[in-house]
Design goal:
By secondary structure, the protein is an alpha/beta fold. The chain folds into 2 domains: 247 residues, 3-Layer(aba) Sandwich (Aspartate Aminotransferase, domain 2), CATH 3.40.640.10; 139 residues, Aspartate Aminotransferase, domain 1 (Alpha-Beta Complex). The chain is built from 13 helices and 12 strands. It has a 7-stranded mixed sheet, sandwiched between helices. Strands 8-9-12-11-10 form a 5-stranded mixed sheet. The radius of gyration is 21 Å and the shape is globular.
Length: 397
């Protein structure tokens, strides 16, 4: 594509025509091994070259490689490495960058799998972890130390939809000699540009909005070319969480409609959030697209799309969750987000504080003040917004 092509056009027309069959679309190459010339490729990953023939499916494959190039283009990165899931991408990056004695600052509320990995396995390996509120720049500044190697942010954060100022965090991290990684799954490349704002790495769970249809797992890390080559050689090859060509094909299909879907997700989420704010049973709605969001100014400044995920607090807790599961007709009671169908799931506060978020004292109290008994996480799908609202209205009645 030309440099002047818009992000929307690149999403649709950025996939190259297949050179073998001139097919419009990338063939699914279901192969785990590829024929090479003797001595052409080293047997060990230590001999891996940045440009070399396909050798073994765990190292890379043609279908997955097209997806990596598409994702790097959409995020304005030099290259990308795909993994079998979003959690594999996060684990691969963290285990690749951090070693015993290193220090990392991690968002104190983030995707549960990442929080549990940092609090458990990384600490057991000797990595020092400080969990911090990354929306509080003074807290981040106070947490930085000479051994800090990484600041790991998520924005908007799952499940409270708190935002982080990527540009300010990048400045703080780089002044301290640390790198900044940003999980931008909820925002997608159409809502946030972390690399353009100074981040060193951007991550996505491709299972969510990028795929969009709920039928493939995947994850990606995007960044500079040399950094991605090192990540591939170390984390992808040795941890073994390689993406399958069939999953890559399904996610490639999803990228084509991603700009249109994100526009529709945002439209629906805004309508639902505004309805819930007016509902007498609902005590709080958390959505970056609302003027009531505590970081509405930052949302206007950094988010080009507020996405389709929101959370709300309502009277009833577990009992209301059971009632919604029984009474909702259009919205499904199910985990995950970013699908074409609307999904709701109840996250009890005490369960989150016991298992995922290591918050103590005043921080735990502040989380309870925001989340109440628990958060209803609602991923607004592509159904007609007025019909999603009507379904909620009858279930909450």
């Amino acid at each position: 594509m030309t440099e002047r092509s818009s992000l929307r056009t690149r999403a649709v027309a950025g996939e190259p025509v297949d050179p073998t069959y001139r097919a419009i679309g990338t063939p699914v190459v279901q192969a785990t091994s590829f024929v090479v010339e003797p001595g052409e490729v080293g047997f060990s990953a230590a001999d891996m070259q940045e440009e070399q023939p396909y050798f073994y499916g765990r190292w890379g494959s043609p279908t997955v490689r097209v997806l990596e190039q598409r994702l790097a283009d959409l995020d304005d990165g030099e290259d990308a490495v795909c993994f079998a899931s979003g959690m594999a991408a996060a684990s691969g990056l963290l285990l690749h960058l951090l070693r015993a004695g290193d220090h990392a600052i991690v968002s104190d509320v983030c995707y549960a799998g990442v929080a549990e990995l940092c609090a458990g396995a990384l600490r057991r390996l000797g990595v020092e972890i400080t969990f911090a509120d990354l929306s509080d720049l003074e807290e981040v500044r106070g947490a930085l130390r000479p051994g800090t190697r990484l600041v790991y942010a998520e924005t908007p954060v799952n499940p409270t939809l708190r935002l982080a100022d990527v540009e300010a965090l990048a400045d703080l991290a780089h002044r301290a000699g640390a790198a900044l990684a940003v999980d931008s799954t909820i925002a997608t490349p159409f809502g946030l540009r972390p690399l353009a704002l100074g981040a060193d790495y951007v991550l996505h769970s491709l299972t969510k909005y990028a795929c969009g249809h709920g039928d493939a797992l995947g994850g990606v890390v995007v960044g500079r070319r040399a950094a991605m080559a090192a990540l591939r050689q170390d984390a992808l090859v040795h941890l073994g969480a390689a993406m399958s060509p069939s999953s890559a094909s399904l996610i490639l299909r999803g990228l084509v409609t991603l700009p249109l879907r994100m526009r529709a997700h945002e439209e629906g989420a805004r309508a639902v959030a505004e309805f819930l704010e007016r509902h007498p049973r609902v005590r709080r709605v958390l959505y970056p697209g609302l003027a009531s969001h505590p970081q509405a100014e930052l949302a206007r400044r950094q988010l080009q799309n507020a996405s389709g995920l929101l959370a709300f607090v309502a009277d009833g807790g577990d009992a209301l969750a059971r009632r919604l599961a029984e009474r909702l007709r259009l919205i499904l009671y199910a985990v995950s987000l970013g699908k074409h169908r609307s999904l709701v799931y109840f996250l009890p506060t005490e369960d989150l504080l016991r298992t995922s978020f290591p918050l103590q004292g005043d921080k735990a109290a502040r989380f309870r003040a925001v989340a109440g008994e628990g958060l209803f996480r609602l991923s607004v799908g592509l159904e007609a917004p007025e019909e999603i609202v009507a379904d909620l209205e009858q279930a909450l009645r």
